[in-house]
Amino acid sequence: MSTDDLFAAEEQVIAAAQELLENGRFHDKADGTLYADLLKDYQKLFRTTRRLMRLSDRNEQQLNALTQEQRLANEIIATKNKELEALSKKLSKYLSPQIYHSIFTGAQNVEIDSNRKKLTIFFSDVINFTETTDKLESEDLTNLLNRYLTEMSNIALEHGATIDKYIGDAIMVFFGDPESKGVKEDARDCVRMAVAMLRRMRELHAEWQELGAEKPFHLRIGINTGYVTVGNFGSEDRMDYTIIGSAVNLTARLQSYANIDGILLGHETYSLVKDEIAAEEQEPIKVKGFAEPVRCYKVLGLYDDLADEGMVIREETDGFKFLLDLQKRERSEAIAALEAIIARLRE
Predict the structure, then answer these.
(1) Is the CB of residue 252 less than 8 Å from the CB of residue 274?
(2) Same domain, 40 and 120
(3) Number of domains in the chain
(4) Are residues 42 and 168 in the same domain?
(5) Is 167 exposed, middle or buried (0-12, 13-18, 19+ CB in 10 A)?
(6) How far is 20 from 7, CA to CA, in rounded Å?
(7) Which of 29, 57, 116, 186 is deepest in the core (most CB within 10 A)?
(8) pTM, two decimal places
């Protein structure tokens, strides 16, 4: 029964009771008085009940309206969250993952700010890029360049690099900010990354030649460790998270002096990785802005890889370290040196 029907039925009961009183059907006056008092209390209770029920109905209507508004608000919020998530994913394509994460977690403020840090910096560039690609159609060139940058970037991220920027076909990355494993380990990761990139490039050469590319890409790589200024540079409206300093300029110069498909290290980087990397010192290079010629080293490979190829013998345990480069010493010389060491141990 609806509220209105219930009220109508109660009103009929009250009307019937009033008719009984008006018609004087009570023979006993005391009964009539008692009945009249009872009817008055009942009418009062009825009015109170009706007022409460109508108030309840209004509250229910308002609650339903609020529930509907809340449901609509939740739907709008969910839609906006999806839009923000989609926008966030798009924005992440323009930032290195480490920088993106530090900004969106609040670890880093989006304001013009910088600080000094010792980082290991990497530069790579495609040799004779224009000559290599001048016969390609723009679509083929775009696909080839994007494939190359994608492959190299994947390797960089796997090794924990912060990708600074792409300058045409050149790549600039650094290790040690915003996260660092320590200066020594950062340098090792950077050199391992460079070796992995050259290894992947050799694999890509075979793929590109099968697709008809006459001159596959060849790289020069420079790596250097030093103090730089790192942070947000630019204006309040447009910023770039990057590094500046003489160590950055030196890295670019090292890259330009590297051999084709070669890696050239600065002296400090070499000193940090020499236990794991085979390298040869080159003629010092003269670099603008540096008073003295700069010492540099050509990477020959990782000792672990060279050991697998039988080019070096390397053993290392607690209190014992042995490294024999078979590319630099004849086996007979190595045997004689080892026999001399064994003889000393037996004394």
Answers:
(1) no
(2) no
(3) 3
(4) no
(5) exposed
(6) 20
(7) 186
(8) 0.69
